[in-house]
Structure formats: C-alpha cells, structure tokens
C-alpha cells in the first residue's frame, strides 16, 4: 500500500506563555498559518496544558511579571502546534514574538520525521 507524503517538511512549535496572553499568542500563530492539520482540513489545532513557571529577573531585565532579583512563580500555558513547511514555522515564531508579552518568549521548534 502506498503512503502519500506531503512535500512540505513538518515542524512542531512549542511555547510557554502566561495565561492572560494565551489567546493572543494562539491567534497570532494561527494567523501565520500554524495549526493547520492535515494540510488545511482542520485549522487552529493545538495542544495546551497549564502549569507553573518560575524565573528570577536579573539586574538588566525589564520583567513583564515580577520584580528584579525576586523569584517569581506564575501560571503559564504550554502550547504545541504543528507547522507544515519551514516558512510557516518561521512566520509562526515571528508572530509569537510580536504577540508575547515577555522580553524573550520561551519556545522551541522541532523538525518532525515521517516513519
């Protein structure tokens, strides 16, 4: 049996955001083309889980939440979304950086393989 494989490489974007910014971040990445699976049959697909993040802003930081030098704990969401094509993954990351309230959002992009 033949398997049809998309020519576009697949990537998974994973990011963390404070809960109050979750919908804005998701809207931005979806507008950039992320979360269309498979190849547009479904849109705005993602996986989200809530958890607790922590950080201590250093002297040179300009924190959105918390104070310099003080350990901060905050409720955050982890979001995972698929991107078909490197161009979509790059656009989604750029959109995330624009929508995210932190100085530098925590994210990772992983290339996926078909087996």
From TrEMBL:
Domain of life: Eukaryota
N-terminal signal peptide: 1-21
SUPFAM superfamilies according to UniProt: NIF3 (NGG1p interacting factor 3)-like
The UniProt record lists the keyword Signal: yes
UniProt entry keywords in alphabetical sequence: Signal
Keyword set includes Signal: yes
InterPro entries with a match to the protein in the record: DUF34/NIF3_sf, N-reg_PII/ATP_PRibTrfase_C
Protein name according to UniProt: ATP phosphoribosyltransferase
Biological classification of the source: Eukaryota, Fungi, Dikarya, Ascomycota, Pezizomycotina
């Amino acid at each position: 049996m033949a398997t049809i494989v998309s020519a576009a490489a697949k990537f998974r974007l994973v990011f963390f955001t404070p809960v109050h910014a979750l919908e804005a971040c998701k809207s931005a990445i979806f507008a950039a083309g992320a979360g269309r699976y498979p190849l547009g049959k479904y849109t705005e697909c993602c996986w989200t889980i809530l958890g607790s993040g922590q950080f201590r802003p250093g002297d040179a930081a300009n924190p959105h939440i918390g104070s310099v030098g003080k350990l901060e704990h905050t409720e955050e969401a982890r979001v995972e979304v698929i991107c078909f094509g490197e161009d979509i993954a790059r656009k989604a990351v750029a959109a995330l950086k624009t929508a995210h309230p932190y100085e530098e959002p925590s994210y990772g992009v992983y290339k996926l393989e078909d087996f």
